[in-house]
From TrEMBL:
Keywords: ATP-binding, Nucleotide-binding. The keyword RNA-binding does not apply. One of its GO terms (molecular function) is ATP binding. PROSITE patterns: ABC_TRANSPORTER_1 (PS00211), ABC_TRANSPORTER_2 (PS50893). The keyword ATP-binding applies. The lineage of its organism: Bacteria, Pseudomonadati, Pseudomonadota, Gammaproteobacteria, Pseudomonadales. Residues 4-238 form the ABC transporter domain. Pfam families: ABC_tran (PF00005). Coiled coil: none annotated. It comes from Pseudomonas solani. This is ABC transporter ATP-binding protein. PANTHER family: ABC TRANSPORTER ATP-BINDING PROTEIN (PTHR42794:SF2), HEMIN IMPORT ATP-BINDING PROTEIN HMUV (PTHR42794). SUPFAM superfamilies: P-loop containing nucleoside triphosphate hydrolases (SSF52540).
Length: 257
């Protein structure tokens, strides 16, 4: 599995006088599951967009196993990096299996059709997310949670080394949140994911980076990072942080005023 290194990254949208990301240093080691947390507007999605070549940093660099992504072609990146976003793409009337098969595109020539190996990979990806029984269903008719699982299957069909996820548990009920994150951990892909749910981040991430106003303000294991003091500082909310009674990770209970 490859490693991701982001060094001294800064980014601002065109025409904006203020940096939305500044001085970002981040690493995802081979096979590591790393979480991005922070309040709304802290820069999580913007950082992910820089990591998958949607937005070019003004300064700094993004490298996969030492290769600067912006010195490589989009096709090279797509063969190695898969992305699952919060928004659902236009499906153009496609069935579930056809959406997942789109993940094979970076590995195909312009006029290549799908072959038996592609079909096998699509079937494996659908089975991995529990959607094999709906392979012929129209993507547009799925629930939000089902669509999210199909898009993860499409990402897995790319056979990436690095997986980038923007709120992967968005639209999912608790059962599928837990199942999805457990599946991701078992894949042992190098993974960078943003989270709103800090308890899920604590349970499944090897390390966390905390963003606030476009800067990394803390990083480390969930135990190192998720303290009552930091949560008050970054999120402006009081919390009780203790150990989960059935697992060795922090548990956060928000304290209402």
């Amino acid at each position: 599995m490859p490693s991701l290194n982001i060094s001294d990254l800064a980014w601002a949208p065109d025409g904006r006088p203020r940096w939305l990301l500044q001085g970002i240093d981040l690493q995802v080691r081979a096979g590591e599951f790393v979480g991005l947390i922070g309040p709304n507007g802290s820069g999580k999605t913007s950082l992910l967009r820089c990591a998958y070549r949607a937005d070019r940093p003004a300064f700094g660099w993004v490298a996969l196993d030492g290769d600067d992504l912006w010195r490589r072609s989009p096709r090279w990146s797509a063969q190695r990096i898969a992305v699952v976003l919060q928004e659902f793409p236009q499906d153009f009337g496609l069935a579930v299996a056809e959406v997942v098969a789109m993940g094979r595109s970076p590995h195909k020539g312009l006029f290549d059709g799908d072959d038996a190996e592609d079909a096998r990979i699509v079937d494996e990806a659908l089975a991995a997310v529990g959607m094999a029984g709906l392979r012929e269903q129209a993507f547009a008719r799925l629930s939000g949670g089902e669509k999210q699982r199909v898009l993860l299957a499409r990402a897995l069909a790319q056979r990436p080394g690095l997986l980038l996820l923007d709120e992967p548990t968005n639209h999912l009920d608790p059962r599928y949140q837990l199942e999805l994150l457990q599946q991701l951990r078992e894949l042992r892909l190098s993974t960078l994911a943003s989270f709103h749910d800090l308890n899920l981040a604590a349970a499944f991430c090897d390390r966390l980076y905390v963003l606030d106003q476009g800067r990394v303000v803390a990083s480390g294991t969930p135990t190192d990072v998720l303290t009552a003091e930091l949560l008050q500082q970054v999120f402006g909310v009081h919390a009780l942080v203790d150990r989960h009674p059935l697992a060795d990770h922090p548990r956060i209970t928000w304290i209402t005023p």
